[in-house]
Amino acid sequence: MNEIVVTGANGFVGRALCRLLVQRGYGVTGFVRHASNSVGGVRAWVDSSIDFAGINGTWPLGLKPDCVVHLAARVHMLNDDAADPEAAFHATNVEGALRVAEAAVQRGARRFVFVSSVKAIAEIDAGRALREDDPPLPQDPYGRSKLEAERALVQYGIETGLDVVIVRPPLVYGPEVRANFLRLLDAISKGLPLPLAMASAKRSLVYVDNLADALMHCATDPRAANQCFHVADGGDPSVAELVETLGKHLQKPARLFPVPVSWLRLVGRMTGRSAQIDRLVGSLQVDTNRIRSVLDWQPPNSTDEGLAATARWYRSTH
């Protein structure tokens, strides 16, 4: 396998994946909205069309990839201002993904790696780590769109012979992280007191470079054919342990104080933030035995190493 297309190549995960692929000697074309800030060694393919509607018109002449890794998506947002979020997620994450897959097949691609999310099957686990074949129960438009895309792509693969690989990461962190993880870093750095000392439920995480390594294997290893994989660091810290470890690496000891989890859930209901509180205090672990056994994959970095790298980046930029 010599040529790989990465959609969302300038995104958080896309940049990490592109850097790794270039380092390993693969030819990489990055599908991006804007050419600026592309990773060195990556051929930029600029397409600003909505939901990939223009992909056939902008497909670079002569580009015949072995594999497409589809990262570009409409992402989960706490305050979604779309008039119809369900329709907006469907348009990008389902219809758009199918357009990319169809265009890839027309140019001879043999494999399509779809980066889904653990949210396609659950927001919390049921007392044990989530496996790939667990009954899916997505809870929001984003999760439902990812599950629908998985199913549509698998069916398309059956009809066309395209080898479709599904990857479901949990929370991804690392240098350049944004959203809630960045807000957590801000809070710890500022010494804000956090009522999370009793938040003991375990949460699976994946360091961005670990996810990039797993995606490279999924794109290039023949054994990944038509598989679905959960990817995580392993170790699965509680939120309290996560905050303490980040505080250590930020050199800003975390200011945790104990509040019963039931009280936090009550505050969530009273303030309309139950979903956010559940993500903090609920258990969400994923079982990564399949990727470890099928591909002999091991995360190249430990959670502590990933958190240390994230803290170094934060301290250098804030």
CATH superfamily of the domain at 3-174 and 206-234 and 285-301: NAD(P)-binding Rossmann-like Domain
Kindly report the CATH topology of the domain at 3-174 and 206-234 and 285-301: Rossmann fold
> What is the architecture of the domain at 3-174 and 206-234 and 285-301 at the second tier of CATH?
3-Layer(aba) Sandwich
Largest sheet: 7 strands, parallel
Q: What series of H and E elements makes up the topology?
A: EHEEHEHEHEEHEHEHHHHH
Instruction: Provide the CATH top-level class of the domain at 3-174 and 206-234 and 285-301.
Output: Alpha Beta
Strand order of the largest sheet: 3-2-1-4-5-6-9
Helix run count? 11
In terms of DSSP E residues, the strand content is 5-15%
Please state the structural category.
alpha/beta
**Which word captures the global form?**
globular
- What is the residue-averaged pLDDT? 93
Describe this structure in words.
With 318 residues, the chain is of the alpha/beta class. It has a domain at 3-174 and 206-234 and 285-301: NAD(P)-binding Rossmann-like Domain (Rossmann fold), CATH 3.40.50.720. Helix content is 42%, strand content 12%. It contains 11 helices and 9 strands. The strands form 2 sheets. It has a 7-stranded parallel sheet, with helices on both faces. Strands 7-8 form a two-stranded parallel ribbon. Helix 1 links the parallel strand 1 and strand 2. It is globular and about 60 Å long. The model has no long low-confidence stretch (mean pLDDT 93).
